[in-house]
Amino acid sequence: xxxxxxxxxxxxxxxxxxxxxxxxxxxxxxxxxxxxxxxxxxxxxxxxxxxxxxxxxxxxxxxxxxxxxxxxxxxxxxxxxxxxxxxxxxxxxxxxxxxxxxxxxxxxxxxxxxxxxxxxxxxxxxxxxxxxxxxxxxxxxxxxxxxxxxxxxxxxxxxxxxxxxxxxxxxxxxxxxxxxxxxxxxxxxxxxxxxxxxxxxxxxxxxxxxxxxxxxxxxxxxxxxxxxxxxxxxxxxxxxxxxxxxxxxxxxxxxxxxxxxxxxxxxxxxxxxxxxxxxxxxxxxxxxxxxxxxxxxxxxxxxxxxxxxxxxxxxxxxxxxxxxxxxxxxxxx
Length: 333
Hints:
Helix 7 runs antiparallel to helix 8 and helix 14 runs antiparallel to helix 15. By secondary structure, the chain is α/β, with parallel strands linked by helices. A hairpin with a 5-residue loop joins strand 4 and strand 5. The chain starts with 5 loop residues before the first helix and ends with a helix. Helices cover 62% and strands 8% of the residues. It has a 5-stranded mixed sheet, with helices on both faces. The chain is built from 15 helices and 5 strands. 29% of the residues are buried.
């Protein structure tokens, strides 16, 4: 038997390293692992401490969705750069009813409704808690192919990687913190999330006054509108429409909140007033107040259009009532 030398040990270690590398290479994923249920994805995301990437597709009717499935999802680039980073979920809305069960379709619909889905195909990146980091919509253009439009999703998602990682880290810190410091971390997270979906994060926002009841962080006013929405909706569901609207007006009149929130509060009050069938004049008054806050904003332009529409309907109704009254008097004579 040959004696064991330093040289022979070195060769042995080298062989082991090479073997391990070969094993690692052979065991690397060759396809993306997909889930088809969002709640199941949340459980797995919790276990693996990953964010969730949701794709909403129309597998048998939307050309870009088909290009995603055929060209993008099986690609090495997607598997190595996207699939390994996130928990992947694919929620399908096919025309063929036989492709998914009715129960699954309605589960998918509930998730789409929760995230205010704007169209198909779309993708949404969320934390494991359901906080929306970013949303992605395909480029609507006839000048580029479906494959290129599908590939654009990946480019958009890759831009979110740094933010996605930062949010995971910040949420972890927040979960271990209490008091005003936690309120500040909540604010940090909200600033990193997609601003179009702030209204969906009421449970997260509610932690600000809970952990900073004395408002030492001065964040109460920043999120006053979002904190008021659940209370207004509760009053609305109880049938107390006037109180729900009044809550929003009080927020709108608060001088410490932003113009954007003030305008949104007036606009929402007008919407509720109209939905409840209350006086058109009051709806117009709220819309005018919304317009006055910031006449250059998109909300102001919408408010102006609705004012014109309601005013025209009121004028037509008045003319109709006058005509009917005139005819009734003429018939009586």
